[in-house]
Design brief:
InterPro entries: DUF3100
Transmembrane segments: 20-38, 45-63, 83-107, 119-138, 176-197, 204-225, 245-267, 316-335, 341-361, 368-387, 393-412, 424-447
Keywords: Membrane, Transmembrane, Transmembrane helix
Pfam family, one: DUF3100
Number of strands: 2
Protein name: Branched-chain amino acid ABC transporter permease
Structural class: mainly alpha
Number of domains: 1
Helix content: over 70%
């Protein structure tokens, strides 16, 4: 079915009343449900409010046809939710930057662990994902699907080198969509389970959480931090933020010059052996290629349709509203009075605004995420004379309180991608999960080696 292009969103609230109302309802319900632990062998799976928020948002979007018109989150609203997700993410990035600035000595003390764990992020995806992808009958699509976790920088690299109509392009698009729909939920459950086994130091797990995706990093760090003491939980957030910042900056060069060539070499070596194990076999390769090409067309349309542009007024409203949601969650989950958190939230929003201004002043050459991180880090660093005051106010807001609103928007936006995703089948889900697990474990193992 042909989709109409969405109009630029000039108004901050006019067309999105239902979206914002549902965001409040979902967040309150998620916080009321709270954290639930499920025993799983020697470990446990922890379902945090942020996971409930994502699942409730997704369920609402998927069931919109069964709801009365006034309660529906239709396709334009789902795309608006996806657009709001980025401003909401910047609030979380600012909070993490504030934690990093005050913990710079601990990060310096981590030394080589923080430096070399980056290799694990971009090699772990291949070690776990590529062999299984080949055994499942996936051909050159396996390169695009397993050389990284398939976030925006990876899309750009593959698009430039191979084009999105290539097998490699279809693979990275499939990984991108799978990660968008399932990534945060999976990495939260997986990271929480690994943390419950007590095999790794919390700092190592935190570094593993910095996979290069804001929502996935937030979900993983939150699941790990929830099983630690308050002081260690703060350190988990700090190391996860530092690792994620490395991954989103110099990590692009790792994917281009290390992991992508490694994936190409691994495919060339392993495909002749593992490709024969697949039931699909070489005789079905052409049929599989046609099938994947059709899915890729839908993926491409799903990735580019309904682009929503938010002007500064819309983004400002999103920051204020998301900040208010975070304060509601903060008061419910961590018993901090709403008004006590307002000064700290104003500082966080201020850091985001300054970062956005610098982003546009520098002609978007440096990502807004980096500017916001640097500004926030400076506010709590020893170089800023009022750092203790800033730390006192912002310390009243738990970083997990900022995750739940973000994943609420992510959940409300998920349904728009499901039709395209259905064409991909279960194989790409398995490969994506293994790639995400590999990037987390690879970095955690390397960090643990250097940490010890």
């Amino acid at each position: 079915m042909e989709q109409k292009a969405a109009k630029p969103q000039g108004g901050a609230f006019s067309d999105g009343v239902r979206l914002y109302v549902w965001a409040i309802v979902i967040l309150v319900i998620a916080e009321l449900i709270g954290a639930i632990s499920i025993k799983a062998g020697h470990g446990k799976i922890v379902l945090l409010p942020m996971v409930w928020a994502l699942l409730l948002g997704a369920a609402l979007g998927l069931s919109q046809a069964r709801l009365p018109r006034f309660a529906q989150i239709d396709l334009p609203m789902q795309h608006k939710a996806a657009a709001i997700l980025q401003p909401a993410l910047l609030l979380f990035v600012a909070k993490l930057g504030l934690l990093v600035g005050g913990s710079l000595p601990k990060l310096v003390a981590a030394g080589w662990a923080l430096v070399f764990q980056e290799f694990g992020h971009f090699v772990g995806t291949i070690i776990l994902g590529l062999p299984v992808a080949l055994m499942l009958g996936i051909k050159r699509e396996a390169i695009g699907a397993t050389f990284s976790v398939g976030r925006e920088p990876s899309l750009a690299i593959i698009g430039e080198k191979y084009g999105f109509d290539s097998p490699e392009g279809r693979g990275v698009l499939a990984e991108y969509l799978t990660g968008t729909i399932f990534g945060a939920v999976f990495i939260s459950l997986f990271a929480g389970f690994v943390a419950s086994l007590n095999l790794f130091h919390p700092h190592s797990l935190a570094m593993g959480a910095g996979v290069g995706s804001g929502s996935m990093m937030a979900a993983a760090a939150g699941a790990i931090a929830a099983q630690q003491t308050p002081e260690v939980a703060k350190e988990v957030a700090t190391f996860a933020a530092a690792s994620n910042l490395i991954t989103t900056t110099i990590g692009t060069y790792f994917t281009l010059f290390i992991s992508l060539p490694l994936a190409v070499w691994g495919y060339r070596v392993m495909e002749p052996v593992l490709g024969r194990i697949s039931k699909r076999g070489r005789a079905n390769a052409e049929a599989a290629a046609v099938e994947d090409a059709e899915a890729a067309k839908e993926l491409k349309n799903a990735s580019t349709a309904h682009t929503v542009e938010m002007n500064f007024g819309a983004r400002l409203f999103a920051w204020v509203f998301s900040g208010a949601l975070a304060l509601v969650g903060n008061s419910m989950a961590f018993k901090t009075p709403f008004l006590d958190g307002v000064p700290g939230m104003l500082i966080i929003i201020g850091a985001v605004i300054v970062g956005e201004v610098l982003y546009f002043v520098t002609r978007r050459k440096v990502p807004a995420v980096c500017w916001v991180s640097l500004i926030a880090m400076f506010l709590t660093s020893p170089a800023f004379p009022f750092a203790p005051v800033v730390e006192q106010f912002t310390g009243k807001i738990n970083f997990l309180a900022l995750v739940t609103p973000m994943l609420t928007y992510a959940g409300l936006s998920v349904a728009k991608d499901v039709p395209a995703f259905r064409r991909l089948g279960w194989r790409i889900v398995v490969v994506s999960f293994l790639a995400n697990a590999g990037t987390f474990l690879g970095a955690a193992i390397i960090a643990e080696f250097f940490h010890v």
